[in-house]
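Shapes recur. One chain:

:::
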Amino acid sequence: MVKATFIARGISAEGRSKTYKRKGLFAIKKKNGGVFPTHAKKVVAAAAATRAPRFYPAEDAKVPLSHHVVRKPTKLRASITPGTVLIILAGRFKGKRVVFLSQLPSGLLLVSGPFKLNGVPVRRVNQAYVIGTSTKVELPASLDLTKYSDAYFKAAEAKKGKKGEEEFFAGEEKKNVLSAEYISNQKSLDAALLTGMSADVKGYLSSRFTLRDGDRPHLLKF
């Protein structure tokens, strides 16, 4: 069927006869014995009459809204590749320089200081809060990162009940102590990253990124 030409919205440039021919309605009519086919309308059962309630609820009942959430994998920024030195912009380690290791299934970045240089342990960071630099560190081929998953960083959550009078005056709660496995993993990771790293790169990672008077962030080349 040829596409119709419209002069304006809803007004065709062709007449009734040309439109009849263009749509091929004559063939449909001829196929059905000179009559256009008709389709019986579906009979919709009438809803049973219900009596309106005498009293209405004092508060409106909450109706959940239907929404479709599509979980798309987070796209990694083109400037971030394994071994790239990143600058953390927010959080506890704001201004620290870290080495990017890999991207986790959750979309977060796996980074490390290393801890021996600047005190940043292996951790997860959102890529929205980092700046990628042009400096790169060559990661060793034997580096195994399979143990570092999203579940690795989730601490066991203990269910806390309501505090009574005794618990309120008991004092400070016990601090979480890092496991020996976590400490050994950090030491082995630091040893692998520091091998073959030059003194200039070590000094660069140890220093904190700061802005001074007169610095223009939009003109800086990282």
In short: The radius of gyration is 34 Å. Strands lie at 6-8, 11-12, 84-88, 97-103, 109-112, 123-125, 130-136. The longest strand covers residues 97-103.
